Amino acid sequence: MLEKLFKLNDHGTSVRTEVLAGLTTFLTMSYIIFVNPEILSSTGMDRNAVFVATCIAAALGSGVMALVANWPIGMAPGMGLNAFFAFTVVAAMGFSWQQALGAVFISGCIFLLLTVTGIRRWLVAGIPKSLRSAIAAGIGLFLAFIALKNSGIVVANPATFVGLGHLGSTGALLAILGFFVIAALDALKVRGAILIGILVVTILSMILGVSEFKGVFSTPPSLAPTFLQLDIMGALHTGLLQVILVFVLVEVFDATGTLIGVSKRAGLIEEGKPNNLGRALFADSTAIVAGSLLGTSSTTAYVESASGVQAGGRTGLTALTIALLFLAALFISPLAASVPGYATAPALLYVAGLMMHELVDIEWKDVTESTPAAITALMIPFTYSIANGLAFGFISYVVLKTFTGKASVVHPATWLVAALFVIKFALFPG
Fold first, then answer.
1. Are residues 398 and 413 in contact, defined by beta-carbon separation less than 8 angstroms?
2. Which of 185, 247, 419, 429 could hold 193 in an S-S bridge, CB 3.0 to 4.6 Å?
3. In this structure, are residues 73 and 305 in contact, taking their beta carbons and an 8 Å threshold?
4. Which of 420, 354, 348 shows the shortest CA–CA distance to 387?
């Protein structure tokens, strides 16, 4: 049955290899079941319900990827967009988490439409590579700022806006230790380094008596507090239109790039040969809609899937294994609830560092490419908004290319996005 469903022989793999690859990927991305509830619960969402939504959304997304596309790629709520959801849309802009979920749902529907019509590929082909890299790096800086703030390493300062916190505090010391544990383990190629780092800090905090041990196993908590609680009509508020645009754009760049990059590494995309990219894009799009209904921010393809590919994963059986493991994780909700914020902070900071690698792909020798890229990456953390970073980046890109006589090389997709942000600033300058 598995051979018929996943065509293992055609891909030169076996059940054992695929299952081990799925376990490998799960270990590298399972930190999200601790981090996502920590981030989204800051909006007032029920933490236990978010934990359940995270696990089910990851299982559904990975399962669809397995059965529809037959690709070894894991899906789960994405890092970056969950922070944008919680700290920008809800905390800074003042919208309710129900309205924010509605925006995720609408963006998912738009994303699905763009995928089905082929516009998604047109957008990806038309956005400058330097801007795509800058967006990823900027989101990394945003995550780093949040991690440092949550751990107490960076604090508010009336004179300089931000300053160094008290490094001798328990939370800061544990966060610093957790970061070095994660970095060292990853450097030593230990699978699940981020997950191990979170658990090490959590256990130490319990030993020191600064956090409470709530158990390991239990029946899954209720999903009711977040299930179908999205406010779609409220999401159509004019102030959320740019939020929806950001959700769509980041998903277009991030998810598509991940899908293509990981699948190429697995040998699933070769020049001139048919592939299942269209089906993979469809699976990715439907996962966003499903996640918003469950009660979590945008679900996306995880770059950590490359670890499973490295372990030999070549088919959807790898993704199906990931899905089953996320379902099994539903029974460790007490452990997830025991994880303090300063245990997830080092995970955020380390992921941020990995995202900064994108800076090497920016064309630094071309000022018309590097300047908009730098503005994009800097404005995201400095304005505490991915939306503002995208807006400044796209507009400055078009302006610089035009002023230097290179307007003809700007793709229509870039013009379109820049124009949308200009309209936004004209109507809502604040």
1. no
2. 185
3. yes
4. 420
pTM reported for the whole predicted model: 0.80
Taking the C-alpha atoms of residue 148 and residue 381, their distance in angstroms, rounded to an integer, is 12
What is residue 324's predicted lDDT score, i.e. its pLDDT?
94
C-alpha distances out from residue 151 to 26, 39, 173, 220, 306, Å: 26, 13, 9, 29, 29
Most confident of 20-24, 53-57, 332-336: 53-57
| pLDDT tens digits, one per residue of 143-169 | 888 889 888 898 888 888 888 888 888
Q: What is the pLDDT of residue 181?
A: 93
pLDDT at 238: 60
Mean pLDDT is lowest, of 8-17, 52-61, 86-95, 101-110, for 8-17
Q: What is the 3-state secondary structure (H, E, C) of the chain?
A: CHHHHHCCHHHCCCHHHHHHHHHHHHHHHCCHHHHHHHHHHHHCCCHHHHHHHHHHHHHHHHHHHHHHHCCCCCEEECCCHHHHHHHHHHHHCCCCHHHHHHHHHHHHHHHHHHHHHCHHHHHHHHCCHHHHHHHHHHHHHHHHHHHHHHCCCEEEECCCEEEECCCCCHHHHHHHHHHHHHHHHHHCCCCCHHHHHHHHHHHHHHHCCCCCCCCCCCCCCCCCCCCCCCCHHHHCCHHHHHHHHHHHHHHHHHHHHHHHHHHHHCCCCCCCCCCCHHHHHHHHHHHHHHHHHHCCCCEEECCCHHHHHHCCCCCHHHHHHHHHHHHHHHHHHHHHHCCCHHHHHHHHHHHHHHHHHHHHHCCCCCHHHHHHHHHHHHHHHHCCCHHHHHHHHHHHHHHHHHHCCCHHHCCHHHHHHHHHHHHHHHHCCC
Q: Could you report the per-residue pLDDT of 341-354, keeping only the tens digit for each? A: 788 888 888 888 88
d(Cα 61, Cα 59) in Å, to the nearest integer?
6
pLDDT of 272 > 60? The answer is no
CA atoms within 13 A on the CB side of 27: 17
Tallying the residues shown for the chain, one arrives at 430
